[in-house]
Write a structure and sequence with these properties.
The chain is of the alpha+beta class. The protein has 13 helices and twelve strands. The strands form six sheets. A two-stranded antiparallel sheet has the order 1-3. A two-stranded antiparallel sheet has the order 2-6. Strands 4-5 form a two-stranded antiparallel sheet. Keywords: Heme, Iron, Metal-binding, Signal.
Length: 471
Amino acid sequence: MRLLLPAVALLLAGAVAADDGPDPAELAPGGTATVRDTGDARAFSLPSASLALERQFDFKLGDGVFRKLWVSSPSSTTSSDGLGPLYNARGCQSCHLRDGRGRPPEPGEPASSLLVRLSVPPGQARGPGPAPGWLPADPDPTYGLQLQTFGIAGHPAEGRVRVDWTEQPVPLAGGETASLRRPAWHIADWGYGPPAPGLMLSPRVAPPMIGLGLLEAVPAAAIRAGADPEDHDRDGISGRAADVWSAHLGIPALGRFGWKAQAPTLPDQVADAFAADMGLSTRINPAHAGECTAAQADCRTAPHGAPEDGGPEVDPRLFELVVFYARNLGVPARAAPTPQVMRGRALFRETGCAACHRPSFTTGAIPGRPEHSHQRIWPYTDLLLHDMGEGLADHRPEGAADGREWRTPPLWGLGHTLRVSGHTQLLHDGRARSVLEAILWHGGEAQAARDAVAALPRAERAALLAFLESL
C-alpha cells in the first residue's frame, strides 16, 4: 500500500515554488518517496512510498537481514556466522535501533550505538593518497582504526568507553542562560596492552537511516556547485567537497555518507560497517578478521564464517538486500506549518543556518531506480565538509576531512528523534541534549549563525526551534 499523502502527491505534480517563500512541497521532504507519519516509533522504518510493489518483498527481506544477529564460527547457522572475533555490535539494528539515532553510553553502560574511531599522529613520510586532498588516518599499531568493545569467547574486547561531562553556562539574549555539556572521553581496560603514544579518539553515534537512497541520487555536480573552499564570495562559508576512495567503484568519488563524508556510496558504507562494526567480510572488504591487526595474532587466525569456495562471510545476496533496505527507507511527511513554524523558517534563512543546511536538491536520473530519480527533496544539508570550530574538533584527519571539519548532517526527521530513538541527543558524539544545545556548539564557519541565534529574542528563538522540530 502506498503511504504518500494524496494531497502532497498532487502538490508535487504541480509547479514548485521558489525557495524564498513558503513551499507546500516541503511537506513531502522525500518527494514521491515520502511516507505518512505513523505517529509512533516506526516513523523511520517504512519503505519509500514510491517503491514498486514487487520490490517491497526485497525491502522486507533486507529488513530481516538488517535485524539479524550474527554469531561466531563455527556454527550450524552457516548463513549467520563469522561474527568478530572483535566487534561493536552483532547486527545492524543493534546500533541503528528502529533506524534512528545512536547516543553516548550512560555510566556503567556499554557503548551500544556509539563507536570510537582511533588513529595516531600522522607520520612524516607519506606518499600520495588515493584521491586528491586525501588525509589518511594512521591506525594504532595494536588497535587499528576503530575500538571494538566486544569479543567472542576467548577474545578479550579491545577496551571500554567512558565519558565524563562538564557543564558550562552560555548566555543568551533576554537574560536566559543555556548549559552545554563538554565531553571528556576515556578508554578503560585496554585488552591488548597500551596504545601508541598520542592516540587520537573520535566518538561517533549512529546516524539516522532515512532518505539515504535519495542523498545518493543527488548529482555530484549539484553538490560541488555549492563548494567555495577559498570563500570567494566572502560570506564566511567555505564548504569543501570530499573526494574519497570508493572500494565499491574502484575509483575516487565524492564522499557523501558518514560524519566525515568518508563513504561515497551506500555499498561502501554498508561494507565498512560489516567489517569494522561486526568483523564480517564482504565482496568489498574481503578480510575475514575484520579490524584485527597484526598485533592480535589469535584474532587473525580464529575460525571464520566464509564458505568453502572462499567467498565472503556475508553472502553477496544478503549484502545487496541490506543495501536495498538502506536505500529505500522513506522520509516522513511533515505536518502543515503553524504561523510560528513559518516564522522560524524565515529565521532559519535570516540567521544564516541555510548557508550550510541547504534546504533542497533535485535528484538525477538513476538507471534502474525510478523511485530515486528526478525528485525534489528537502534534506537540509549541502553534503559538504565545513570547519566547525575548535569546540567540535576531534583533531583527527580522515578521508578528505581534517580534524575540524564535519559533513553537514541532514536535518530531515529531526523532530522525530525522541519518538523514534527515545532521546534527543544530537551532534556527532551525542553531546547536545537538545536542538538549541546543538546550535550553540557550532563554531568556525557557523560561528556567525550561532551568534545570531543566541542573540534572538526569546519568542524568535522559540520560533526557530519550532521550525527545526517540525522537520
